[in-house]
Amino acid sequence: MTIDMPQSGQFRVLVIFGGRSAERAVSLESGQAVAGALRSVGHTVGTWDPAATPMSDLHSADWDIAFPMLHGTGGEDGVLHRQLCAVGLPWVGCSIASSALTFDKSLTRARMQRYGIQVPLGTTITGRDTSAPIQFPVVVKPARQGSSIGVSMVRRQAEWGPAVDAALVWGSEVVVESYVAGREVSIPVIDGEVFPTVEIIVRDGWYDYDNKYKSDRTRYRVAPPDLPANMNSIALMACEVCGVEGIARVDFRINETNQAYVLEINTIPGMTIRSLVPRSAAAAGLSLSELCDRCVGTCMRRHDAEASDDRAK
């Protein structure tokens, strides 16, 4: 754990990143970006990598608030949030329950469908089925994983078994969805406010891990034209029905008839130089520093109001 001396002494913020998940490399980059952004606007910033320092060494009294940038298992699934709750440290982002819900793609699909939000045709399988339950092409993905890790595009029967095996590496439940041909877009929702849509344009293949984080050929278009008129309201509703707060990103596919399908909600989205949320915020006139500062302030005001209500009871 490292600690910087305060500049303007606004808040003491502990940025949490790294961890042991398959998304560690991305988490390290995101966390370093957020830590630097918060330092630049005068916060006292510390960093904590749970893979390097045990929870028992974390002194919550040293901090006003945590800023989780711990992608993947152990971070986005509610585990970290339970730990922070246990030591009484408030955090930027979702509750324990909403984190656990949205990290599970199967549960998220069910919640969307319950409230009439359109998702791709699909199902959840357990174990290695010998044939696809829906017609090809399909997308096969672990129910609880991120950054397209363990995800495969399957266009024919010969690809089915290896795709399921690749997903099962990351857990016993596998989500199988019909591939929605068309456009891929993402809408950040930050503390209940919709930010500009970002369209992802992949030159080779699909938006897999390499095209997200390594390829120089992936292109992004902010506030693209000709989107469904109800996209923003769908993104807001998706977050509302899942109890999502803080910085979130709702991912969509838009088919050839301009129908929008929700793929997932990411509650600790990437903050790397390639990431979608910083691009969207910049289009809205906010630097990464301003965005992170705003989220810390909003969370602290909410925490102080809740503490005041508790004292009044």
Short description:
The chain is an alpha+beta fold. The chain is built from nine helices and 14 strands. It folds into three domains: 2-92, Rossmann fold (3-Layer(aba) Sandwich); 101-117 and 181-283, D-amino Acid Aminotransferase, Chain A, domain 1 (2-Layer Sandwich), CATH 3.30.470; 122-178, ATP-grasp fold, A domain (Dna Ligase, domain 1, 2-Layer Sandwich).
Describe the structure.
The protein has helices spanning 24-40, 79-87, 96-103, 105-114, 157-168, 209-213, 231-241, 276-283, 288-312; strands at residues 2-3, 12-16, 44-48, 65-68, 122-126, 138-142, 152-154, 173-178, 183-190, 193-194, 198-201, 219-222, 247-254, 260-266. Mean pLDDT is 90; it is low at 1-9. It starts with a strand and ends with a helix. By secondary structure, it is an alpha+beta fold. The strands form three sheets. Strands 9, 10, 11, 12, 13 and 14 form a six-stranded antiparallel beta sheet that branches. Strands 1-3-2-4 form a four-stranded mixed beta sheet, with helices on one face. A four-stranded antiparallel beta sheet has the order 5-8-6-7, with helices on one face. Helix 1 packs across helix 9 (288-312). It folds into three domains: 2-92, 3-Layer(aba) Sandwich (Rossmann fold), CATH 3.40.50.20; 101-117 and 181-283, ATP-grasp fold, B domain (D-amino Acid Aminotransferase, Chain A, domain 1), CATH 3.30.470; 122-178, 2-Layer Sandwich (Dna Ligase, domain 1).
Features:
D-amino Acid Aminotransferase, Chain A, domain 1; Dna Ligase, domain 1; 6-stranded antiparallel β-sheet; alpha+beta; 34% helix; globular; 3 domains; 313 residues; 4-stranded mixed β-sheet; Rossmann fold
